Task: structure prediction
Amino acid sequence: MGSGSTPADSPQAITAEDWLQRLAELSRRQGLAIGAMLGAARRDLDLLLASAALHLPVDAGLSEREASERLREFLASTGAMLDTDHAELRRWLVDLGFVARSDRGSDYRRGVLPGWLQQAADQLDARQLSEVAAQARAAHDDDRQARKQAWLARAAQPTDARGDAPPQASTGADAMFMAQALDQAHNGWVVGEVPVGAVIVRDGQVLASGFNQPIASHDPTAHAEIQAMRAAATLLGNYRLPGCTLYVTLEPCAMCAGAIQQARIARLVYGARDPKTGACGSVVDLFAEAKLNHHTVVSGGVLADRCGNLLSEFFAERRALRRTGALPPDAEVGDEGED
Ligand SMILES: [Zn+2]
Result:
């Protein structure tokens, strides 16, 4: 690389090519929260914030309105994986130095980017970034369509936990929707949460989705099932969700089982069993209580291996990161499934 000296703790400089490649990978994600990326995902966060900063000029100041307009464009294209709005993004960019604001607060321009991004930034512009992101998203959508077709073609073999599988859902559809819940679980992993995901389906359509995010949201109730039910209830304008099926990658806990019954979810389909907190038979079976449960039919074991392996891999990675000291001391991790 170059001949300049680099401080020992600064990451190695990135090439423009690697920048675009990483951006393409991140463009397949969604719902990334800036606050949650500050710890373990800081390098990715810096790359995304620098991508946003490339939308602002280096040598001329923009008014707040103009700067907001540029950031809105970024969030609608290159930065669509970020879960934020232009005002919050602008605050982060200014706070972390990616965007410089004059003392009067009315003049925004590109700030000083981290050293490892600076050289590549000189070779890139906003249009290139949005093209790469759009291509990656299109390719991802094609992949998903292909996977969906494959799942539909090959019937999965869920084991029905209670032997009373309701007639309305085919096993192929169950596997397809569980795979979408797995996709949500991956989103949780990206932001450092225990990877559990959920989707809610009615009449063959996904109404809402969610992933586990108690750490980022400072909310002990922010389990995947609750996130998805909140979104579906808001969408339908109804606190009951009759006729809906909830798919979740991990057997629900007692809290979620209670909420599922309150919402009158018609059918619950889960992936892996949870021997530590599962409330569908592993620890307790709240759905077997006839006095509690009048509405919800339960099936378990759909894509159970994939759902369970995802959790095992996540905790193995966490243990490895802890051993090497790569996990910042403030990077919390939920204790679900951990010893
Ligand atoms: Zn739960």
About this structure: Residues 126-153 form the longest helix (28 residues).
